[in-house]
Amino acid sequence: MISGVRTITRRTSVWTPPVRSSSETRERLLAAAERLFAERGFAPVSVRMIAAEADVNWSLLGYYFRGKDGLLAEVYRRHCESLNSERLRLLAAARRGGRRLESVIEAFVRPALAEIRGRGEETTFSRLRAMLAAEDAPLLTQLVAENFDQSSRTFLAALRECLPSLSADEILWRFHFMLGTIYYSASSPQRIKAFSRGRCDPGDVDATVRHLVPFLAAAFRSAAITTPAGRRPARAARRR
Asked: From CA 21, how far away is CA 30, in angstroms rounded?
């Protein structure tokens, strides 16, 4: 009290960010980015949106990942690393068992289905991949090449050993169609599940593998359909 006037001291609280370790900060940024990219796509999500979701200062995203592209690359790499490791582990087991065609196909198919359909539900990463594909993000082509080219070459070589009568290009076409079958079966299960009234459920990884592997093996073993080099397709007979 001075000269009869009451003095009130106001205390202002200053927000300070929580103290976190570097590893915790990185993990929060990765988890936040994966969620947001899966929900909204890559282009619409800003650095500040990711930082706010992770509850960290936005400048840390540049410090740890050199920007949004680097963050997406790390999210993608971590998932692909575990997927490729499991595929190669199963392929090594198939080699010890004589490397039958069905074993090679299952080594490729099963980990992909498990990655896409975690515990019977579509995973965040599978939604992220679908969003990137729909958005046609330029970075996606580079990420796919960096993370899958080497393992794809390994499996293509294994398939050629199992199918020596087929040309490299013929096997490559069938490998391409196998990829499409895997991801459509896992990411769009609603149609067959509704049509069969629940009897056919692509969310059941074991059941899907049990039906898919023989189907793919039969396709891979089918006769070559490529026109031999130097020959033209036969023309229809002329009308008489």
From this structure: 14
Please tell me the distance from the alpha carbon of residue 133 to that of residue 41, in angstroms, as a whole number.
9
Tokens of 59: 């400048």
**Rounded Cα distance, 157 and 12, in Å:** 68
Q: Look up residue 51 and give its amino acid.
A: A
Please tell me the distance from the alpha carbon of residue 58 to that of residue 240, in angstroms, as a whole number: 78
Q: How far apart are CA 18 and CA 14, in angstroms?
A: 12
CATH architecture assignment, domain 72-221: Orthogonal Bundle (1.10)
Question: Which residues have CB under 8 Å from 43's CB, separation 6+?
Answer: 135, 137
- Measured in whole angstroms, how far is the alpha carbon of residue 176 from the centre of its chain? 15
Spatial distance between the Cα atoms of 227 and 80, rounded to a whole number of angstroms? 36
pLDDT in tens, 154-207: 999 999 999 999 999 999 999 999 999 987 887 677 788 888 988 988 878 899
Q: What is the pLDDT of residue 186?
A: 72
Give the H/E segment covering residue 118.
Answer: strand 117-118
Tokens 């009568």: give the residue.
165
Q: Could you tell me the maximum CA-CA distance found in the chain, to the nearest angstrom?
A: 123
Look at the pTM and tell me if it is higher than 0.85.
no
Q: How many whole angstroms separate alpha carbon 103 and alpha carbon 96?
A: 11
What's the CA gap between 111 and 118, in Å, rounded?
Answer: 10
Q: Where are the domains of the chain?
A: 72-221
For 104-158, write each residue's pLDDT tens digit.
999 999 998 887 765 545 577 878 887 888 877 778 888 999 999 999 999 999 9
